[in-house]
Structure formats: structure tokens, C-alpha cells
Design brief:
By secondary structure, this protein is an alpha/beta fold. The chain has one domain: Rossmann fold. Helix content is about 60%, strand content about 10%. The protein has a five-stranded parallel β-sheet with strand order 3-2-1-4-5. Helix 1 packs across helix 2 and helix 5 packs across helix 6. It starts with a strand and ends in a 5-residue tail after the last strand. The model has no long low-confidence stretch (mean pLDDT about 95).
Length: about 140
């Protein structure tokens, strides 16, 4: 079983707050089931974490047994594009009353859907609505 990890999970683990230990435990359990994976956009977002360095991020990912899949090929781009277009259409129809999402979220979701078995995220509402076939694990698993 391959578990894709959303940026928000690792970002919170890096904060060292009370929930970070619970999320670390969640990833540990997911890792017991198989590989832990982040895609390139998650890696790029993590590099923007305050005071982050490539050396520290590499060490953190190695220590936590998280693989980085930097390759994003055509099927991911096509799926992300379809889902982002559907989202944009719904947003226009609702007069844009909800927060605007970034394309990155849809790339992460498409990568998880096509190349992993599930996604670990705290943004389950976004992913369940836009990727209904994607298995999610999040705060309800804590």
C-alpha cells in the first residue's frame, strides 16, 4: 500500500505542536502498511517552510522513510487539469463564494489517485469532493 502525504501533514509535524505527535503516529501506522510518498509539488511547498533547507528536508524525509516522486507525467497533468476545470466551473457557478484553491492541490490529488493507494491529508473536504474515488486518511484517523 502506497500512502501519498499532503503538505499540511508534514508542515504540522515540523511545528512540534501537540497534534504533530499524533500525525507522526498516523504516518507511522501508514508506513507499516507500505511506502510513504510525496510528489514534487509537496516537496516544493515544504521548501517554503520557515528556515527550511534542502539538507534538513532531505534528512527529515530519510528519517521518516518518505520517498519523493519527482516525476509527474502526462496522466497526472490531464487528471489534475480535468479536476481543476470542474472545480473552477463550480466556483464560477457559485459566484466564487468559497476560498480559491490552488492548482497544486489538484496535482497532489491526481498524483495520489493515479500512483498511490490513498492520501493522508487534513484537507479531506477538498479531496473527497474533487477526487471521490481517492481513499483518504486524515484527522478522523487520529
Amino acid at each position: 500500500m502506497r500512502t501519498s502525504i499532503d503538505t499540511n501533514i508534514i508542515s504540522i509535524i515540523l511545528t512540534g505542536t501537540a497534534i504533530s505527535q499524533q500525525l507522526s503516529n498516523l504516518l507511522g501506522r501508514a508506513g507499516d502498511d507500505g511506502a510513504l510518498v510525496i510528489c514534487g509539488p509537496v516537496y516544493a511547498e515544504l521548501m517554503a517552510y520557515p528556515n527550511m533547507t534542502e539538507t534538513y528536508l532531505h534528512g527529515f524525509l530519510t528519517q521518516t522513510r518518505v520517498e519523493v516522486d519527482f516525476a509527474i507525467d502526462e496522466p497526472v497533468w490531464r487528471e489534475a487539469g480535468r479536476k481543476f476545470a470542474e472545480y473552477a466551473s463550480r466556483r464560477r457557478e457559485s459566484a466564487g463564494s468559497k476560498a480559491k484553491r490552488l492548482l497544486t492541490d489538484f496535482i497532489i490529488g491526481a498524483h495520489a489517485l493515479l500512483y498511490c493507494d490513498r492520501l493522508c491529508t487534513l484537507d479531506t473536504e477538498l479531496f473527497s469532493k474533487n477526487f471521490p474515488k481517492l481513499q483518504l486518511i486524515g484527522s478522523e484517523s487520529l
